[in-house]
Design goal:
Blueprint (H helix, E strand, L loop, with lengths): L5 H15 L3 H32 L9 H11 L9
Length: 84
């Protein structure tokens, strides 16, 4: 992808070890892992909530939020020159 070979990766690894030290690297990696885990959890929760709201019935007819929005859009008159 970036044209990094084994020698370049070894040099980068040595620089990281010199800059941060052997004790600090696990802490950094742990923090990155926790951040990724929280991001995945939040995105999964958001997706679940969106799906739940889209499938939730709105009225007595048993229509969903998405169905109701489609019906509302179909009822609105289309003006000449408007792009839809």
């Amino acid at each position: 992808m970036f044209g990094l070979g084994t020698p370049e990766l070894v040099v980068i690894l040595i620089l990281v070890l010199v800059l941060f030290g052997g004790r600090k690297i696990p802490e950094i990696m742990r923090g990155i892992g926790e951040g990724l885990r929280e991001f995945r959890k939040a995105s999964s929760n958001a997706q679940t909530e969106i799906t739940r709201l889209a499938e939730e019935p709105v009225g007595d007819e048993g229509t969903t939020v998405v169905d109701a929005e489609v019906e509302e859009a179909a009822d609105e008159p289309v003006e000449e020159g408007s792009a839809q």
